[in-house]
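Researcher: Here's the sequence for the chain we discussed earlier.
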Amino acid sequence: METRLVDKFGRVHDYLRISVTDRCNLRCVYCMPEEGMEFEPEERLLTFEEIAETVRVLAGYGVRKIRLTGGEPLVRKNLEQLVTMLSSIPGIEDIALTTNGIYFAPRAVKLKQAGLTRINISLDSLRADRFSLITRGGDIRRVLASIQEAIRVGLEPIKLNVVLMKGINDDEIEDFLKLSLEQNLHVRFIEYMPIGHDDAGWKSKYLPLSTVLERCESMGWQTEECDKALKGNGPSQNYRIAGAAGTFGLIHPVSDHFCQTCNRLRLTADGNIKPCLYWSDEFNVRRHIGDEEALARLFFRALEIKPESHEMAKVLLDEQMSHTPTNRRMSQIGG
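Model: Thanks. This is the structure I predict for it:
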């Protein structure tokens, strides 16, 4: 058996995204329906001990980076305990958190002390009324307070995730870019993805991220690529406006997919390995936890069937796909 997690396309996997819950305190329009979601009962979620044991095994095969996601990960009680457990595992160098920011500010210090190294905060509008509509009730003041608290405790680089949607928030592109001009913040525009959505509804809101560079040009801003400027080697193509304190990034899985450099696996809250975000293939780890060799074999099996690409662009073009897309919502996968 290999000593590193390498798939048949030669991609080395050193990054694990872990969803700790499928529940969320918000109902963002691109992620979850307003009502009718069926959540996993608590007893079906992986325990912190099961998660930590899985990570300990994978660290022995080269996993170095962990990202905790949800749903909203801070809905899970005592998340600081899990961060402490993960940060004590030899080989784990980076523990990041993706959050909507509503619950983060009061827990920032404890999370940092536990070993959290970085944070991504979802922020799809800078306008209070629109933010409330997109999130179906979210209070932007709490998110903005969390951003400032993350700065205060030193969880840098601080990345803001903006899902760009035509006719909904694309008129705020310049406002988000100005954030990167004025503060050491890293705004990442993300293309709206066809995951768990009706194709027609998704297509009507999809916008390619070339729009962001066009807006920079129309504002007279000079930009330069700075892909090595940020910690981590994720899918974002990063830029800096001349003289800016921060940066902005483009994550375009549909118009310009990044699969050839994919280095990640996903572990869902109910214990399923997902080798690819978009396809339906899953392998449940729970019965293998406690058997290091069996658990490792399961991850290598997942890598064996990992396809070269997620083919999301084919949805836009109404082309036939080579695999079966997932029917899970983004909140059930962990992004």
